[in-house]
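Listing S7. Sequence submitted for prediction.
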Amino acid sequence: MSGEEEGFVIDIEINNELDQKIVDQFALFDELDAKKIDSDNVGTFLRSLGLYVTNADVEEIKEKSFHSQIPNAYHIGLLLPNITECFLKHKFLPKTVEQLFEAFHLLDPDKKGSLDIAYVEDVFKNQGDQFDDKEMAEFMVRAVDHRSQKVNYEYLINALLQNVLDENDLFKLSDKIALEPPQEKVEEIIAETLKDEGEKDEENSLNRNLN
């Protein structure tokens, strides 16, 4: 599988189920089927995979995946190996519910159980990992209790955890793949087994002839 970019070809190497799931998710962001997405969408794409990346993390991955021939976009063929590595090395794991509750207790010293929308927007846009306007808007749709017009813990944590998969968790899939021997090793094991079986049959045949 490959993608052509103005005279040169970028290969898309899909080696396992994890790679395929990442490529399938990328397709949701690649509306023109150009095998690339704009720079501004890389962070949203990474978070949609369940990677809890900061803006600095996003920039690091973009730097590793940069190609001078496509300066304003990022090709899946270049992003894929760097993203797969994140899963296999367990980088950017999601926070647990307990950790999130502990963090938001710090934002709510009076223990009201909810936060003002303007305050949450200020925290996420101007402090720590800074959300851009698009990310903030998408996040607040899920985080706000529209009856009270407040952000309560349950809504907020559900919004933060909405990308964490259960049985389809890509981190779990990466663990499974890491435990599987590479194809050449499988072929070597099969060859050795067949050889051993052949030697046993030859030995049994020789023993029968001697008897």
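Caption to Listing S7: primary sequence and predicted structure tokens for the chain studied. Residues 2-88 form a domain with the Recoverin; domain 1 fold (CATH 1.10.238.10). The chain has ten helices and six strands.
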